[in-house]
# Entry
Amino acid sequence: MNYGKAGERPHTDHNIRSLPLPATDPVFGLDAGIVSIWKAHLES
# Structure
Protein backbone atom coordinates (compact mmCIF):
# COMPACT_ATOMS: atom_id res chain seq x y z
CA MET A 1 0.00 0.00 0.00
CA ASN A 2 1.23 3.49 -0.80
CA TYR A 3 0.61 6.58 1.25
CA GLY A 4 1.74 9.36 -1.11
CA LYS A 5 5.14 9.67 0.49
CA ALA A 6 8.18 10.84 -1.45
CA GLY A 7 9.95 7.97 -3.15
CA GLU A 8 6.91 5.71 -3.53
CA ARG A 9 6.06 6.84 -7.06
CA PRO A 10 8.94 5.25 -9.05
CA HIS A 11 8.30 1.82 -7.57
CA THR A 12 4.56 2.17 -8.10
CA ASP A 13 5.05 3.25 -11.74
CA HIS A 14 7.24 0.19 -12.29
CA ASN A 15 4.58 -2.08 -10.79
CA ILE A 16 1.87 -0.60 -13.02
CA ARG A 17 4.00 -0.96 -16.17
CA SER A 18 4.69 -4.61 -15.35
CA LEU A 19 0.99 -5.55 -15.39
CA PRO A 20 -0.42 -7.02 -18.59
CA LEU A 21 -3.17 -5.13 -20.36
CA PRO A 22 -6.59 -6.76 -20.09
CA ALA A 23 -7.65 -8.66 -23.21
CA THR A 24 -11.08 -7.03 -23.26
CA ASP A 25 -12.82 -3.90 -22.09
CA PRO A 26 -15.18 -4.88 -19.24
CA VAL A 27 -18.06 -2.95 -20.82
CA PHE A 28 -17.47 -2.86 -24.59
CA GLY A 29 -15.65 -6.13 -25.26
CA LEU A 30 -12.72 -7.14 -27.42
CA ASP A 31 -11.98 -4.27 -29.80
CA ALA A 32 -13.75 -1.28 -28.32
CA GLY A 33 -13.57 1.05 -25.38
CA ILE A 34 -10.30 1.34 -23.51
CA VAL A 35 -8.74 -1.63 -25.32
CA SER A 36 -8.86 0.23 -28.65
CA ILE A 37 -7.16 3.24 -27.03
CA TRP A 38 -4.42 1.05 -25.52
CA LYS A 39 -3.84 -0.71 -28.84
CA ALA A 40 -3.56 2.59 -30.70
CA HIS A 41 -1.09 3.90 -28.11
CA LEU A 42 1.06 0.75 -28.27
CA GLU A 43 1.16 0.86 -32.08
CA SER A 44 2.31 4.49 -32.20
